[in-house]
Structures are given as C-alpha cells and as structure tokens.
Amino acid sequence: MIETSQATDFKAALLADGFTGDLVVATDPEYQASLLRFAKNAQRNAAMVAFVKSAEDVSKVITLVNARSTGPGSIHVAVRGGGHSTSGSSSSEGGIVIDLSRYLNTARVDQERQLGYVGGGANWAAVDKEAIKYGLATTGGTVNHTGVGGLSLGGGLGWLMGEHGMTIDNILQVTLVTSDGSILTVNSTSHPDLYWGIRGGGPNFGCVTEFVFQLYPQRPTVFAGPLVFPPPLLPTVMDAVHEWYAGASEKEAAVVAMTSKGSTGTPLVIAIVFYNGDEEEGRKRFSKLLSLGPIVDGTRMIPYEALNSLQNGTAPYGGNYHLSGTVRGERGIKAETAIQLFDQLVEIASAPGECATDGVPVMAVVWEFFHLKKAASVASDATAYRMRVAHPASPIMIAWQTDGPEATKDAKNRILQLKQRLDEGLKDSFGGGRGKDDTGYGNYEMGNPQATDAAAPLYGENYPRLQELKAKYDPAMMFRSWYPIQPTRVVT
Ligand SMILES: Cc1cc2nc3c(=O)[nH]c(=O)nc-3n(C[C@H](O)[C@H](O)[C@H](O)COP(=O)(O)OP(=O)(O)OC[C@H]3O[C@@H](n4cnc5c(N)ncnc54)[C@H](O)[C@@H]3O)c2cc1C
C-alpha cells in the first residue's frame, strides 16, 4: 500500500523525470473519475493513476516503482487497457495503475501492407471503424467497447475467427515495456520467446503500448442481427442451430443466449446470426432458424463496423457485472435439459439475496458458435494460448444494481451455482460436457484469475515454458494480476 503523501511524492518525482501524461492521486479532483471501470465492482482505490502518453512514460513509472520498492511486489502495479476485467485485474487497491486508455487509444492503418497499428488502450470500436475505411478488418471482440489490450493478450474470440483465426493469431508485433523498464519490440525475430509468450499469456510479461495486427480485405456490409424467441422454443432453436453449425462455412457464426430478462422484461432466448456476405445467401444459410417464428427478427444487412456493436446494449458501461465462463461440446442439447437449465437460470437469478436488494439481477448464458477450424489449425504449443481444439467457450454474465462487497459475493455465488448446474446438465448433452484439461477461456475469467494457482491449469503443458519466460522477464512478479505465472526461480 502506498500512503497518500508517498503517492504525491511519486507524482512529483515522475514529473521531474519528464513524464508527459497525467498523474492523478487521491487529493486530485478527478481522482474518482480516474478509477472508473466497465464493471463498477471492479473499481479499486489506487494510490496513483498514471495516464501514459508513450512507452517512455510507462518505462518511467516502472523505473520509479523499482527504485522505491522495498522488496518484490511491495508496490502493486496494474495495467489498464479497455478496463473490462470484472474481477478487477486492471485495478489496484493502494498501488499504481498504468492507464493506457486516455491517450494510447487510437488505431491507424497502413493500407498497402494491410497492417493495423493500435494503441494498447484502444477499444475494438476504434479498430473496426478505422480499418473498414480502407476496406479492411481483423478478428476483434463482439462488444466493441471491450479493450484491445486484455482481449488480444488473452486470446481473442470473435465473429471473423472462422476466416482469420483468433486475435492472437493476427498479432504481428507489440511494443512491450517489461518489468525492468526496457522498451522492447517483440515479433517473430525480435525477442521471439516473448512473442510466443504474449500471445495468450500477455498481461504477465509487461505493458503493451502498441499492437501491430494483420488486417484482411472486408466487404463493407454483412448480414447479421438478433432473432428473439420465447423460452419454450429453446430446444427447437438449439436443434436448428446445431443442424446449421454442422455444415457452416468459415464465413458464418452465431451466438445463442438464454437470459433471465430480455428486452421484454421476461426470460428470452436470443440468437444472433452472422454471415459475411449478402442478404439472400445469409437468409438461405439460416433459413431453418428464421423459419421458427421469432418474436423479433432484427436480421438485416448492416455496415461491417456495426457488427461488433450488436451486443453493446446487453452490457452498458458502469454497471455491476461478474463474467465467468464454462465450455460446451459439439453436439446438441437434449430438450428436457435445455428447459431445465433455463428454469434453473431464472430461479437462481430471481432468488432473494444481497445482490437483489435494489432489483432482480439479470443472468445470461451465451453459447458461442464460432467457426473454430482456423483457430484449431494452429498447434497448441505454437503460442502460449493452448485451448485450440478444446470445447468452445461459453460466457456467463450476471448484472446487478446493489453496490458493495456483499452484493458482489452473492452475485459470484449465483454464477458458481449456475456453472455447477450447467456442467452437470451438459454431461449427457453437448458431447459429454467438459474435458479433463478443458479449463475454458481465460478471458472469460474462469474462477479467480488473480489466484496464485490460477495459471497452471489454464496453460497446461505450456506452463513450464511460461514459467521460464517469467523468470527471465519478470522474476519479481510485477505483473501478477491476471493468471499470475509463477517464475521457475522465485525472487525473495
Ligand atoms: C461485455 C464483454 C464482452 C466481451 N466479449 C468478448 C469477445 O467477444 N471476445 C473475447 O475474446 N473476449 C470477450 N470478452 C472478454 C475480454 O476479452 C476480457 O474481459 C478482456 O480482459 C478485456 O480486455 P480490456 O483491455 O478491456 O480489460 P482490462 O480490464 O483493461 O484488462 C484485462 C487484463 O489485461 C491486462 N491488459 C489490458 N491491456 C493491456 C496492455 N495493453 N498491456 C498489458 N496488459 C494489458 C490488464 O492488466 C488486465 O490484467 C468480453 C468481456 C466483456 C466484459
């Protein structure tokens, strides 16, 4: 913990050292605003927030932390990209936040080389909007206010992954500031060990101030939109989705959500479909689903840059949220299991409790049907991210209104209850449920991503190599807020 007087002293020292961004401490008028996150419950009271303008600014902060530390980890450092971690992994209680979102938040495009240069604190809206001006795009997040930083360093699942693979598969280079303050250019020939490690283990190795992404030609409009169904149709919807998915091309994808409270204020099934092509063909591909009689059919041709905003309304910035994830298998779900799970979702969401004192929380389970072949064509040891052929991811989200730690605890418990029911319920559906090594997708914050033992199961057979890398680049574990990799040689 840094005391307020110490933080003021840090601020003065950084300014004297030529720090060019903004430094905010508890006595500054904009302090509360500087702590804001996507999830209110992920906000923490940092001693100082450093809104950096460059890699050099980041390096100055890290150098000062090293100079003033009384031992490994004595000053907690967090890096904030888009600020969407619901567990608080980009926040710090009493430490220093290196915040990239105020200044390093833009994207620029090299049209000729089809490259995107993206700030470490940008969100996906910035990338999508800039790239499509040149008829280009890459795989990004499906809610476009999500940050490029955390999403890219932890994997990156999105609508375009059937054609272009995961986001990590399109990272060509990063500028990384490591725990000794070095500013490194990391790519396949410069620090190739780190290039391997940051693609999946990213937040463990430093602060990325710039990404260089491979971009691809993208048509200006796509066929996409939501189809809303009443809960009793869930089994029929899932059958239709599985039938479509079995023959889907890499240009198609869908997500199916069961939510305890949709736009009608009642439980709903929402399927969002996507075809990277024209309307006539898109309607053909999803004809079975479209014929089921949705109560709302919002499918239409939309500008490409609107695709990743289709789900923005389900997760507005600044509420209380807890995100977690599980996995689903390849086969269909039995009708009775689907109905049972939906009932359980509604029951868990509407139970009385600490997080329900200001209104009933909203819970949703999302089953993603992205085309996985391209991602799975990369070997599981080619990048730190290994879950290439594992069961597809399935995020679960709870949103609630009551502030405070007790409400957060209650909300997390509800997610745990639901996950248990899902794992049990899906054992005999969805191709047998979760596999032995199937931890799910790290960015969906499985369990507690800050726990000291969280990294080993996530990285599996890639873990020893990551531990070596951690020992080389961050032996004192300055970066330990996201599945903290334990170095092979611990510094005392
Ligand atoms: C509403 C919502 C929708 C989502 N949709 C998707 C989706 O479609 N696809 C998908 O794959 N995931 C999705 N996710 C999960 C998402 O990938 C993670 O929440 C991710 O951590 C968000 O990144 P961020 O930069 O916004 O978060 P932050 O909270 O800023 O950061 C998360 C972690 O990454 C680190 N970090 C962030 N930026 C940097 C950087 N530049 N350098 C070093 N470390 C950094 C932080 O220190 C922290 O540990 C979604 C999450 C939410 C809440």
TrEMBL record:
SUPFAM superfamilies hit by this protein: FAD-binding/transporter-associated domain-like
Cofactor(s) the protein needs: FAD
Annotated Gene3D superfamilies: 3.30.465.10, 3.40.462.20, Uridine Diphospho-n-acetylenolpyruvylglucosamine Reductase, domain 2
Region of interest called Disordered, as start-end residue ranges on this chain: 427-447
Residues annotated as domain FAD-binding PCMH-type: 42-218
Protein name per its UniProtKB record: FAD-binding PCMH-type domain-containing protein
GO molecular function, one term: FAD binding
Lineage, broadest ranks: Eukaryota, Fungi, Dikarya, Basidiomycota, Agaricomycotina
Family annotation (Pfam families): BBE, FAD_binding_4
Superkingdom field: Eukaryota
Family: Belongs to the oxygen-dependent FAD-linked oxidoreductase family.
Entry-linked InterPro entries: BBE, FAD-bd_PCMH, FAD-bd_PCMH-like_sf, FAD-bd_PCMH_sub1, FAD-bd_PCMH_sub2, FAD-linked_Oxidoreductase, Oxid_FAD_bind_N
Organism: Serendipita vermifera MAFF 305830
Annotated keywords: FAD, Flavoprotein, Oxidoreductase
